[in-house]
UniProtKB/TrEMBL annotation:
Taxon lineage: Eukaryota, Metazoa, Ecdysozoa, Arthropoda, Hexapoda
UniProt key word Membrane: yes
Signal peptide: 1-19
Listed name of the protein: Ionotropic glutamate receptor C-terminal domain-containing protein
Limits of the Ionotropic receptor 75a N-terminal domain: 227-319
Organism from which the protein derives: Drosophila madeirensis (Fruit fly)
Membrane-topology annotation of the record: Multi-pass membrane protein
Region (Disordered): 672-704
Transmembrane annotation, as ranges: 446-464, 565-584, 596-621, 839-860
């Protein structure tokens, strides 16, 4: 950059001195013509940059001396230098950020225009080659130096800029355009303005022809020289046939053929030289200093893409991804027809969108196919992305997930398909909560309150029964009978009953001596026994026997007395019977006791109604979903399978999610285990150290071996197809196992819904649950990096979306989720063993406790009898 400014500063004094040294006939009245031309071109550049493109950055490519073979070449060079000096001065006075670049470094090193005849001739038909030759005898080092020079003076950055080229320089300007074509600089980053001004040269040649006499023989020679030069040098229109112009090229050609102060403006573009397109040149307006840039109304009212919607059947290479191994028919038929629409769904959907864009812009496809979207293998991309990088195709017919590692290799045009892979499985009807179904109707707070009410009721009932038993001693009429039998009578009641009994016996039986003797004997036996009990035995065994015998007699006597413990236990049994809708066969004479009974019955009735209704509702309602996350699925009893598709395998190769890593190590890949691992598998899994779990599942003893090494050892990259030790399968097989087994299968819903709708019953559909391993992925259309087709496809996809074509194809290719038609059937009301298992466990547990107590009582009875027999 500094070198260019230095050249410019050195050039301006030389140009002014050169203009002063011209002959009088050349600098007299004709000196104003270069000045008028400079003013005209300066006004054109300012108007083009500021008012038309609104880009204040200008890079102006010119030369010091134009190449010309006419006899008045010196006069033309002097006029060109004067025009450039004034033009550069006026540009620096404008509001533009101007950079002047000299093209003299691209001067011919060979024998000039006639040295070779590699370029096309005028009128020779359409140009076939990509470039035009001008007799450049350049070595490889010179070509490389010119390319490096172009990279230094014209770099692609984030900001747009104007590039103006003075075509009056001749061969250097054409050489510069060739270099820009090879570098593919005719993109939307640069707005080109090519100025072809013949007005100045025509004026100078006409002026010099007036002052000089030309002999007829010299005139013929000059005419033949011009014809040969014109025959060799193509016009700018022919030259653009070999330039790499594209759909997004912004190139305007300004031509001035007469002495008038106006330029005719042309829009130049090409659908693509590599696509077999033709150059399109359209007159779009004119420029005059007084009126500025005047464009036709149709040009001003339309955008660049809308003006270039006819690509003239350009042949665009398109590569699609086909994973169906059983594809029949032609590739075009398979992609456009809905035969087996659940296979390669997103690839065929995206291609049909591109078909709509193709019809909109009038191009044709050159199709090819591959089996991979493009994954890094051995440090390089394979599949569709690899073909785009190697320039084997132009656009990708299949959408991809846009990841960071792919950003620097490809360009995207817009969103296409929304992919939603997830685990699909039939949720188990009976989960862990179903095993405690008898506790589910009430919450823990309700159960606690019921227990509190039971304790209060038992205590009040215990108190009332005790009081009633003492106050109203009715035989068998009490609320609860104590274990000891009837309570002792009062003293006067006992005496009265004994007297009545003696009178009755006396009236019935006569008094005899024998009866009196017997009564006396009975009376005298009691004190004898008491005396015997007070006798101090001589031996130790006799003393122990007497003490044990006395203790047993005392316990037997106490049993005949009422016990408060027995009343409490009877109260507890009464409350349990009331709650269980049973009860006891007795009544009470106290109003308070009857109130307790009625209250307990009403309380039991309410509790029973709520409880039974909740049980029935639990059986009728939809089973709760307990497997809601990926972690729940990992720790469940369900087996897991994956759709055998490349992006699933690549996900496990690159994921850092610990739950996904644990899922792969435990559920997806079956690996041989050692004895150490068998001991570890019995322990509960810890999801945090996923790498250690994976290493343990693989049976390795090296702790440094990570999860990534295990995945690579089993997958061997993203293209491994060895399913012998893993659960990778096609959608039909996986969903068949989902239907008939406790199995979870990871598949895209677009492929799964159609199979489910055709093979699953309504009840099976209602049992399905979906759990995502990663969020839904948005896919995009792709093409080569810096491709000129990017704006075309972006605009086409937006139009396709606005007009409803995208929605139409989405409904065609994406199967809807099968609806769940819930019906109450007899199979929904059955109670299986898992549901009643808690009641059976309680019953078996009570059986065990009863048997233990029975055994204890039997042992105690046998021990008691043995003691009595031994000491009796």
């Amino acid at each position: 950059m500094a070198m260019h400014w230095l050249i410019l500063l050195l050039l301006l004094p030389a140009l002014s001195i050169r203009a002063q040294e011209l002959p009088l006939e050349e600098t007299g009245g004709e000196q104003a013509k270069p000045l008028r031309t400079s003013v005209l071109q300066s006004s054109l550049l300012v108007q083009f940059c500021v008012h038309y493109r609104h880009i204040p950055r200008l890079t102006y490519f010119t030369c010091r001396n134009p190449e010309t073979s006419t006899r008045n070449g010196e006069a033309l060079r002097a006029a060109f230098a004067a025009k450039n000096a004034q033009l550069i001065k006026s540009l620096y006075r404008s509001q533009l950020f101007v950079r002047i670049v000299q093209l003299d470094v691209l001067q011919q090193t060979g024998g000039g225009y006639g040295s070779t005849n590699t370029g096309p001739r005028r009128g020779g038909g359409r140009v076939q080659g990509p470039r035009y030759g001008f007799g450049f005898a350049q070595s490889q080092s010179q070509a490389q130096s010119h390319a490096e020079w172009l990279d230094s003076v014209l770099t692609v950055d984030a900001l747009r800029q104007i590039v103006a080229v003075d075509l009056a320089c001749g061969a250097p300007s054409r050489r510069f355009l060739e270099l820009a074509s090879a570098k593919m600089l005719y993109s939307d980053k640069f707005h080109w303005l090519l100025i072809e001004d013949f007005g100045l040269f025509n004026q100078l040649e006409a002026a010099t022809g007036k002052h000089q006499e030309v002999l007829p023989q010299q005139a013929k020679q000059l005419q033949s020289t011009r014809e040969e030069e014109a025959d060799f040098q193509p016009t700018i229109e022919e030259f653009t046939e070999g330039m790499n112009l594209y759909m997004n090229t912004e190139l305007m050609l300004a031509k001035r053929l007469s002495e008038g102060a106006n330029y005719t403006l042309y829009d130049v573009w090409n659908p693509g030289l590599n696509y077999g397109g033709h150059v399109n040149r359209t007159e779009i307006g004119s420029f005059t200093p007084s009126q500025g840039v005047r464009l036709h109304s149709w040009f001003r009212r339309t955008s660049t893409v809308r003006r270039r919607m006819d690509m003239q059947h350009a042949r665009v290479r398109c590569m699609v991804v086909v994973t169906n191994k059983n594809m029949t028919g032609t590739l075009m038929y398979y992609l456009t027809h809905t035969v087996s629409g659940h296979i390669d769904t997103m690839n065929r959907f995206n291609f049909n969108l591109l078909m709509a864009v193709r019809d909109m812009f009038n191009w044709t496809f050159v199709l090819s196919r591959t089996t991979s979207w493009g994954y890094v293998k051995n440090g390089r991309f394979d599949g569709m992305i690899g073909a785009l990088i190697r320039n084997e195709t132009d656009i990708g017919g299949a959408p991809i997930f846009y990841w960071l590692e792919r950003h620097k290799w490809i360009d995207v045009a817009g969103r296409s398909w929304s992919s939603r892979p997830c685990f699909i499985f039939r949720h188990p009807r009976n989960t862990q909560k179903d095993r405690i179904v008898f506790l589910q109707p009430f919450t823990n707070d309700v159960w606690v309150l019921i227990m509190v009410c039971g304790v209060v009721t038992v205590c009040i009932l215990w108190l009332l029964t005790t009081i009633e038993w003492k106050l109203v001693p009715h035989d068998g009429a009490a609320l609860i009978k104590p274990k000891g039998g009837a309570p002792p009578r009062h003293h006067h009641q006992v005496q009265q009953q004994q007297q009545q009994q003696h009178e009755l016996e006396a009236s019935v039986r006569p008094v005899t001596a024998l009866s009196v003797a017997e009564e006396l004997q009975d009376v005298t036996e009691i004190p004898k026994q008491e005396e015997n009990s007070n006798i101090d035995p001589s031996t130790l065994w006799q003393r122990c026997y007497l003490k044990l015998n006395n203790y047993l007699k005392q316990r037997k006597a106490k049993r005949k007395a009422p016990e408060r413990v027995g009343l409490f236990l009877e109260s507890v049994l009464f409350f349990v019977g009331i709650i269980c809708q049973q009860g006891l066969g007795f009544s009470t004479s106290f109003v308070s006791g009857r109130c307790i009974v009625i209250t307990s019955l009403l309380f039991s009735f309410c509790i029973y109604q709520f409880y039974s209704a909740s049980i029935v509702g639990t059986l009728l309602m939809e089973k709760p979903k307990t497997i809601k996350t990926l972690s729940d699925l990992v720790h469940s009893s369900l087996r897991v399978g994956m759709e055998d598709i490349l992006y699933n395998r690549d996900y496990f190769l690159n994921t850092k999610d610990p739950v996904s890593m644990e899922l792969y190590a435990k559920k997806i890949t079956s690996v041989p285990t050692t004895k150490e691992n068998e001991a570890d598998e019995d322990e509960p899994a810890d999801p945090a150290p996923a790498a250690a779990a994976a290493a343990g599942a693989a049976g390795t003893t090296d702790p440094a071996k990570s999860y990534r090494d295990i995945v690579h050892s089993h997958e061997t990259g993203a293209h491994a197809k060895d399913n012998s030790a893993s659960n990778w399968m096609d959608p039909e097989t996986g969903l068949h196992r989902v239907k008939n087994e406790r199995f979870a299968f990871h598949v895209d819903v677009a492929a799964a819904y159609k199979i489910i709708a055709e093979t699953f019953s309504e009840q099976d559909i209602c049992d399905l649950t979906e759990v995502s391993m990663f969020p839904p992925q948005k896919t995009v259309c792709i093409m080569q990096k810096n491709s000129p087709m990017r704006k075309v496809i972006s605009y086409g996809l937006r139009r396709v979306t606005e007009t409803g074509i995208l929605t139409y194809h989405f409904n065609v290719w994406h199967s809807r989720k099968p609806p769940c038609v819930k019906k109450i059937e007899t199979s929904d009301l059955h109670v299986d063993m898992d549901t009643v298992s808690s009641a059976l466990l309680i019953l078996l547990f009570s059986y065990g406790i009863a048997l233990m107590i029975l055994g204890t009582e039997i042992l105690y009875t046998k021990w008691h009898k043995r003691i009595i027999i031994k000491f009796g």
